[in-house]
Structures are given as structure tokens and as C-alpha cells.
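Input sequence (391 aa), recorded before submission:
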Amino acid sequence: MRLAVRNVLKLRGYEIAEAGDGPAALAIARESRPDLVLLDMRLPGMDGIEVLEGLKKIDDSVPVVMITGYGHIQSAVDVMKLGASEYLQKPFENAQLVETVKRFVHGPVRRPAPKPQPRPEPEAAPLPATEPLPEAAPAPVLSPAKKGLFFPLAAALAVLLAAVGVYRLASGSQSGYYREYPGVPANISSLVWSGGKLFAGDWLAQSVYLYSADKDGLRQEQAFPLDKTHISGLAAAGDVLYVADSWRKVIEARRIAPGLPLIATFPAPGKVSALFYDGEYLWTCDSSGNAVLRRPDSELTPAVSFRLPEKPDQIFKDKDHLWTAVSSTGKVYRHKLDDSLSLDAVFTLKTARPGYPLSAFAWREGRFWFARDGLGVVFEAGKGELVERPE
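Predicted structure, C-alpha cell format:
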């Protein structure tokens, strides 16, 4: 992978320094002070998050683009809050790599309208588009031949948001229903319906947004900034909104009232990636696949626990099934409500959005509501959106 990245970028005039592990990358950073670092999440000995922390101690202003094969929303939460500027999900194409690098060393790329992603250019072998790249890929450290301009993450996200102007409504059968609601935050990590209102958690802005839906679309009614709360899951229980923070390993109970005032904070072993309240129990799920039913009492007392092999980062329970999803694969799993939550079916989404992983979902009145990380759109679809796959 280092060879492929180096060849693609050297052909475009960048000076490249390479490191095969974390300590070597930190040594290069101390000596040469690069303008940009491409850093893999998984490295031998010292993982990417540890290297990121070390880079920020050397130079807090250096942009760092994390490279991950997971596409897992919690990985994105973790590295962004530690100071990463962007992340690339493997596999990616030459054009995607070059465009990302240009944003940080040549200033933002401005486009008047969305354009199809260019195909990899012929002078360099493309990065694999179907086969996964090696997880232990090391960390190239980049310095452009000519000093470039840096700009903050907000500007990089604005480039992505500018490309989102989609809206489509397909009428017909309930199963084939499909609608897109643009104009919402691009980094939604959780969706939950309560009392006819939609709560959406934004992990990047550290905010919760409250929407109402009508024939004209989604209308934002309130925004609740939650300073230093890294939102990975939401659950509504009456007048209480539970908020999971996977980074601090806590679950917050907040009153559904102006400002979402904090009622209590509960320690949560593991990184809780999803929440759901079924009217009796608060379901919690962590990044290791541990699903726990907790009583909504003053201690969030555990009652029953299960182990889910797919290690989901999203969950939802209806009267017949437990639904889970994994961002990195885009797969949705349906489990029976038996003693072992046995797997019943596996689905993928009919409408593809390559490069924008499924980041949140909920069911409401037979409709599947979902969001994709990086797209400022909430989707509403009938059951026909889920295509069953053999597992």
C-alpha cells in the first residue's frame, strides 16, 4: 500500500517520506515537520490512534488523514475527536486519494455543481477497488514540493456538503417507497423517533437536532449543543433522552426540555455504539458486540446480556425482531427474539452510495429511516429498500 500511495502522489509532485510503524513515523515528524500525514488505523505495535496522539504532541497544527478499512462510525468519532482532519475508507481510488491530499496542501477545491468521481488516471496503477487493502499498511508522511495552505476540517466538510443536492421521491407501493430529505447535518450517528418527532445525533458537531416531518420534508425545530459529548447512540424513554458517548465510555440521561439538561451520567464498560429503549428495557450495544438489557432505574441495572457476532454499531427492536447494522459493510441484520437472539436474515441496501457508510437507522410505521455518514440527507424507504442476502 505504501508503494501505491507513494507512486500516485510522487507523480503529482509531492515529496514523500515513509514509515513502516508508529515510532518511525514520529521520528520523521520530529525531524522534517511534514505538511500532511496519511496514517493507517492499524499498525504493528503502536496503533494509529496512539500515533495520532504522538503527532499532535509534536505539532498540533499538522493535518492528519486517517486510513481505515473498517468504515466504522465509532472509529471516525474517535480519531476526529483526537484531532484527525479527515479519514479515508479502504478500498479507495487514486482520484479520491489525490483530491483529499489537495484539500489540505493546496487549499479547498471549489465546485459549482456535483460531478461524477473521475476514474483513476492511467499513469499509476490504481489502488484496488474491490479487494481489501492490507490492514497493517504503514503511515506515509507527506510533504509537498511547494509549501501549501492548510484549512480547517469545517472547510473540508463544506466541500462534501456542496456536492449534496439530491432529492428524489418515488411513489408507488409501500414496499417500494423512497424519499430523500436533504439539508440535515452530514455526520448523523443516531436516529430515534419519539412522540412523532425525530431526534438526530451529530457526532462531529456534538449536537442533537429535533425534527418534525410533513409532506414538505423535515423541519428542524430545535438544536441542542452538547459540549464534549461524543454522540454514538440515542434512545428516548418518555421525557428522558439517553445519549451514549463511546469515547468517554458513559451513557448520559438528559431531560427532554430546553437545553437537554443533564440528569445523570452512568459508566458503561466498553465503547457503547448504540442504544434503544423498547418500553421496558434500555438496550445497549458496544463495539465488541455485547448487547445488554438494562432497567431504566437509577443505576441502569443490567438484566440480560447477549453476544452478537456481527458487532453492530446500530440497533433497533420492534415487537418481532431485533434489527442491527454494521457501518463498515452496510449490512442490516434481523434477529429472532429468542434466548440467543439467533440470526434470522441479512440485508443490504438497494440504493447504493459508495463511500458514504450507513451511520444510523430506525423503523417507523413500516418505513425504514436511515442516514449515511458524509451525506447531508435523511432517507425514508419502504421495506423494498432492504435486499435479503445469503449469509
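Checked by second reader. Residues 108-138, 143-172 have pLDDT under 50 and may be disordered.
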